Amino acid sequence: KNEVEQSPQNLTAQEGEFITINCSYSVGISALHWLQQHPGGGIVSLFMLSSGKKKHGRLIATINIQEKHSSLHITASHPRDSAVYICAPTQSNFGNEKLTFGTGTRLTIIP
Amino acid sequence: EPEVTQTPSHQVTQMGQEVILRCVPISNHLYFYWYRQILGQKVEFLVSFYNNEISEKSEIFDDQFSVERPDGSNFTLKIRSTKLEDSAMYFCASSVYATNSPLHFGNGTRLTVT
């Protein structure tokens, strides 16, 4: 069973700050997803990565497969970034299947 | 932008009743998934579906659950005899491929079992 730990559990920051959310998992994986869950409950996929680094706008995700660790960074944070961020690795050979979800990091950006 | 749609947004049912949660995945997607999130808890994988077959399922997905793609557009999750502990938000998702392809989630159906 893959244990997924995220830190911090809650993060409050001022607008413009650089944000880092960490994810560690216990079992070797084939891929890892970063997801954003809005206050209303909707889930948006941000990244899927199996190695290295991906960037999309102000968001950057990195993964170190050997260390079983991934990070999500947000540059120039904005109040609209306030949400719960969830990492979800998968051990399946198919990267979208059988995800194990972390408990999430609740991010609040204050104007 | 195309999106995954789920209906109803909220369903209330009595314990022991059957419920069907409906999803319309994005039209060119081939892989379909159901997840659930009990209030205050983590999202949990239930099942993945491809080519009219279940491709993976979790321990949660027991005999009271079934999935079906009855036509070319709908993807349904049926719970045969609901229990109080089935109360949760149920999310449908789809993707074009099983790998290297982003997941697209619906807005969820909140199921309340009384």
Characterization of the model:
Chain A has no helices and ten strands. Chain A is mainly beta and 111 residues long. Chain A has a five-stranded antiparallel sheet with strand order 1-3-8-7-6, with no helix packed on it. A five-stranded mixed sheet of chain A has the order 2-10-9-4-5, with no helix packed on it. In chain A, 38% of the residues are buried. Chain B is an all-beta fold and 114 residues long. Helices cover 0% and strands 50% of the residues of chain B. Chain B has strands at 5-7, 10-13, 19-24, 31-37, 43-50, 53-57, 65-68, 75-79, 88-95, 104-105, 109-113. In chain B, the strands form two sheets. In chain B, strands 2, 4, 5, 6, 9, 10 and 11 form a seven-stranded mixed sheet that branches. In chain B, strands 1-3-8-7 form a four-stranded antiparallel sheet, with no helix packed on it. In chain B, β4 and β5 (43-50) form a beta hairpin. The model of chain B has no long low-confidence stretch (mean pLDDT 93). Classes of the chains: A mainly beta (111), B mainly beta (114). Chains A and B meet through β4 and β5 of A and β4, β5, β9 and β10 of B.
